[in-house]
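Exercise 3.2. Students should predict the tertiary structure of the chain below and write it as C-alpha cells, then compare their answer with the key that follows.

Predict this chain's 3D structure.
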Amino acid sequence: MYPVLRPLHSSDEASVVDVWRRAVEATHDFLTPEDIDFYEGHIRDVYLPALEVTVAELSGRIVGFLGLHEQRVEMLFVDPEAHNLGIGTRLLAHAAARHATLDLDVNEQNPSALAFYRSRGFVETGRSPTDGEGRPFPLIHLRGPYPR
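Answer key:
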C-alpha cells in the first residue's frame, strides 16, 4: 500500500509533532527527555511554520513527514509503527523529483538513519561537532541522491 502524499494543513500540526516525538523516542536514544521537550518546541513553533512540509498518510492517518527548504531536507520522520513500509523512501523521492540534488544532516549517533540515506545514494560531504542549535550532538552532512 502506497502512502498518500500531500501538503501539511494547519490542522495536521499536532499529528505531525506526535509522529516526530514517537520517531525521536524510538531512534534517538542519545537524547534525554529534556532534550526531546526542547526540540519539540522548536519543531512546532519554528520549523513547521518555516518549511514546506509534505505529509504521508496511510488509511487517513499521518505516518510520516518531510520538511524542505529549497533543496535542503530539514526533517524526515516516520512513525515507528510504519518503519520499513517505504514511507521515508517515498517522501525522499517526492523531494528528489523536484530537486536534482538534496542536502541534509543526520545525527552521527543515529546509525540507522545514516544507513538509510547512504543506501539511497547519499554521500558524506562533511561533519559538524554540534547540531544547528549549538548543542553537542554531532551532525554528518550528506548530499544526494546520486544515480547508481
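Discussion points: The longest helix spans residues 33-50. Strands lie at 4-7, 52-58, 61-69, 72-78, 102-107, 123-128, 139-144.
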